[in-house]
């Protein structure tokens, strides 16, 4: 039963999912070209119509299981109806360092006059110089830029709502994203959480302008227990300050900082490991024995005590207060394992303990999960996956039942 009045709260990875924030891919994906895709963090140029169909099917699988699907574009539009949000949105769209003073002023005054829907579109899909509505301006910046250069950058990675914000208990942490191509996502999520009626009253965890953390690295192993991947995206400083913030707010008692290889294939902790049940994970076989963790706990007087490193699986089990964290053995040969890891085989989204959504293409990983008693709801992802993200990356749970 969908209850739109229930306040957001997430205290595990696997509690029955009630509401989730997704972003249906839009015009921002049409900005990708072979010249900019690397910088914009896509590995190829997605076929946008098909990506939308795949995404619609993903949302339908979730709705079919009683999950309320909130779409980021709608939420942003609603937030921008508030005049204060609109003003902040204009401010977030205009980068004076890119446009120079004169052009920045004209773009600002133009955007101030547009409606919430148009501003939302500019914030997500960006704007090229040739799309600027006013006729030939005399600005040097305008004259010297190629008409197809971006006056406002597009945000194609909004699709991965996991990374830009994460709920920890009843608080939301808005990420401080590492890659330049994603930094402005912080402002978009900030607007949604500050001004959308559904979220307006939510308390914040962490400060969005602190050291880098990304939601793909944040895993709620159990109520009060967080694992934070530290690698290409989340920095050690980010993990430490998130730990301090959740300890200070009393929403976690243990944080595991988990070093992961700094590479594109393992950009976030959830590319190598996701939870499929309250005591079980699916994990990239090569990570199984090598993953380590530092354990952070509050000292009680405002400090943080760090121990370890110890093997991740035992540190996690201890922090969770269970005998053993089971790894569903995908038993794959190294080549298949590497192929399916790259295609987000380990990046599942749990809808309940033992029920996960996974990309259908990772046939072998899914088969092993099913053999271990996990129900896998397969979705197509040939186009969605071109940005290197699976079902967990593409979803930000805002409400899960407690288990
Ligand atoms: N949680 C995740 N694994 N997210 C995947 C994000 C992919 C995105 N293209 C990026 O590079 O940022």
TrEMBL record:
Compartmental location: Cytoplasm
Organism: Amycolatopsis saalfeldensis
Keyword Repeat annotated: no
Lineage start: Bacteria, Bacillati, Actinomycetota, Actinomycetes, Pseudonocardiales
UniProt xrefs under SUPFAM superfamilies: Pentein
Active site positions, chain numbering: 393
Keywords recorded for this protein, A-Z: Arginine metabolism, Cytoplasm, Hydrolase
Record InterPro entries: Arg_deiminase (IPR003876)
Record carries keyword Iron: no
Record GO cellular component, one term: cytoplasm
E.C. designation(s): 3.5.3.6
Catalyzed reactions: L-arginine + H2O = L-citrulline + NH4(+)
GO molecular function, one term: arginine deiminase activity
Pathway as given in its UniProt record: Amino-acid degradation; L-arginine degradation via ADI pathway; carbamoyl phosphate from L-arginine: step 1/2
Superkingdom per UniProt: Bacteria
Protein name per Swiss-Prot or TrEMBL: Arginine deiminase
GO biological process per UniProt: L-arginine deiminase pathway
Matches recorded under Pfam families: ADI
Family: Belongs to the arginine deiminase family.
């Amino acid at each position: 039963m969908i209850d739109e009045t229930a306040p957001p709260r997430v205290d595990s990875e696997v509690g029955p999912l009630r509401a989730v924030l997704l972003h249906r891919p839009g015009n921002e994906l049409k900005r990708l070209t072979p010249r900019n895709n690397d910088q914009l963090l896509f590995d190829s140029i997605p076929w946008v119509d098909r990506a939308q169909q795949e995404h619609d099917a993903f949302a339908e699988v979730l709705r079919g299981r009683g999950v309320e699907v909130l779409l980021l574009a709608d939420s942003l539009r609603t937030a921008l109806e508030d005049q204060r949000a609109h003003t902040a949105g204009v401010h977030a769209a205009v980068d004076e360092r890119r446009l120079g003073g004169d052009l920045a002023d004209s773009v600002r005054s133009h955007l101030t006059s547009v409606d919430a829907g148009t501003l939302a579109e500019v914030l997500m899909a960006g704007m090229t110089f040739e799309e600027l509505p006013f006729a030939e301006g005399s600005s040097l910046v305008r004259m010297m830029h190629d008409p197809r250069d971006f006056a406002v950058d597009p945000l194609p990675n909004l699709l991965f709502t996991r990374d830009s914000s994460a709920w920890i208990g009843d608080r939301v942490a808005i990420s401080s994203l590492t890659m330049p191509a994603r930094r402005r996502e912080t402002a978009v999520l900030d607007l949604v959480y500050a001004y959308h009626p559904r979220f307006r009253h939510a308390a914040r965890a962490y400060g969005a302008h602190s050291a880098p953390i990304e939601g793909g690295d944040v895993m709620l192993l159990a109520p009060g227990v967080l694992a934070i991947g530290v690698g290409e995206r989340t920095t050690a400083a980010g993990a430490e300050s998130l730990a301090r913030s959740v300890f200070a707010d009393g929403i976690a008692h243990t944080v595991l900082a988990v070093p992961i290889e700094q590479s594109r294939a393992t950009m976030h902790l959830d590319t190598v490991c996701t939870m499929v049940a309250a005591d079980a994970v699916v994990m990239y076989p090569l990570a199984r024995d090598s993953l380590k963790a530092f354990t952070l706990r509050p000292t009680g007087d405002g400090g943080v005590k760090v121990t370890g490193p110890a093997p991740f699986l035992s540190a996690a089990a201890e922090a969770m207060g269970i005998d053993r964290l089971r790894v569903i053995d995908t038993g794959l040969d190294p080549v298949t394992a590497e192929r399916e890891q790259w295609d987000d085989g380990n990046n599942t989204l749990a809808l309940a303990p033992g029920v996960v959504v996974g990309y259908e293409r990772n046939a072998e990983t899914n088969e092993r999960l099913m053999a271990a008693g996990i129900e896998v709801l397969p979705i197509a992802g040939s186009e969605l996956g071109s940005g290197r993200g699976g079902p967990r990356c593409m979803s930000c749970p805002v409400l899960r039942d407690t288990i």
